[in-house]
Amino acid sequence: MSTVHLAAACASDRPQVTAAKVRALWHAAGFDRVVAKGDLTAIKLHVGEPGTKTFVSPDVAAALVRCCVDAGAKPFLTDTAVLYRSERDNGVDHARVAAEHGFGLDRVGAPFIPADGLIGADEIEVRVDGKHFETVAIAAAILQARSIIVLSHATGHLGTGYGGALKNLGMGCASRKGKLRQHHGRPPKIDSDRCTGCGSCAEWCPAHAIEVDRVARIDAAKCIGCGQCIAVCRDHAVEHGWGFGGARLQQRIVDHAAAVVRSKQGKIGYLTVAEQITKDCDCMGKSQRPLLPDIGLLAAQDPVAIEQALLDLVRARAGRTLESMSYPRLDGSAQIRYAEEMGLGESQVELVELPA
What we know:
This protein is of the alpha/beta class. The chain has 14 helices and 15 strands.
């Protein structure tokens, strides 16, 4: 049985109140044993798509940074490039969005550094021997960091029913190649109406799978699915299919999460923000209304347990599951079952609520 600590909290809490609760959770969950002096510590989070307002508060990130600094570590905020058309599909614009949303060095006390580099291609292949993948592609800085705090926002999700720590680990820590493998596993396609024939995709293709004759064409037999063409095309002419959903996508995400968890034994902690829980994840650039009242902040050293505790709390508070309020046809617990099967943690939870 794994212990998960809960601090009742609201998104409207004052910064000093938030900081005190984060610090209390830090010590209760044993993060002072996870992060050590001299560590380059990644705080993995989602800074929010432009247009959304319900992403994790920078006050939570700032409180975690202060705890890391007090431990003698060198923290940095980080995330990876997205596959879809977005200001977060490259490192330059991603860092700018982070700053605009309050995650700049001046406010949180640590820099934002894209974990997968400028175009989402800085990656390390890791062996996992999972149900769907023997090896997975993980953002380099995630594996190079000495310790990690996984700062997640609990939300619904159109592909998995809900998103929390496991999605933040598996999808959020994967390079562009890793994300492509999770979602589809097939070669990208060229939109001939958008393609200008500039040749950038062919120039950067490591498999020499692209030829340009007025417009680019991808040889599916040669394509290795790395996503470089998507990254370097500034005309948004390279497209991919979203493909998988449901349990299959959840398992593919967990295969990637396993690479991160196993690489950081005893050096990874999880803090999930169960506030402003919305139907869709923070990748949706739109204003959303919360599905239920705020619950608070959860902390643990077990990603399976913190996910199970989250879903149990939502069910207890709302009288129904998070998936039923977001995407009722999906069973989000498939990711928990498979993560436990992969040895990433335990679904038997002892929930300890901290004093108010």
